[in-house]
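REQUEST FORM: STRUCTURE PREDICTION
Request ID: SP-0412
Submitted by: Lab K.M.
Chain count: 1
Length (residues): 150
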Amino acid sequence: MKIKADYTVSAHREKVWEHLTDADLLSQSIPGCEELKAAGNDTYEATIKVGVAGIKGTYKGTVTLENMQPPSAYRLIVEGKSTIGFLKGACDFRLEEVNSGETKVELAGELTVGGKLARVGQRIIGSAAKMTIGQFFKQINKLVTTDTDS
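STATUS: Completed
RESULT:
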């Protein structure tokens, strides 16, 4: 399934970059994230609870940041397994300062799911992915705004 979206965050690009690439800040922003700990160079072990259409599971896997071009672009790769299936995806992030103090974040990628989660259908998974990404950016915006104010 293809994923494409863009969001505007109320902070300068360098601050948004910091929040999108820092493990502690990411763990506070990823919906359902129970743990995100360093496992190597820009690679993290993750434990994330996911639920779609009544099917819930805890995924354990890795999150890797690649092709880092601070503060304008990087690639995020996720892989996870659960008793209800697996997920695998890659997403390119592009950051562009658009207004004084605002950053547009564009993301484009692909997500593959298997197991029980895949059986609920691509349309439902697509809607859930869009909602989760929206929650993620709402939290990023909240954290970056709080960080900027302090």
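NOTES: DSSP finds four helices and seven strands in the chain.
Reviewed by: T.R.
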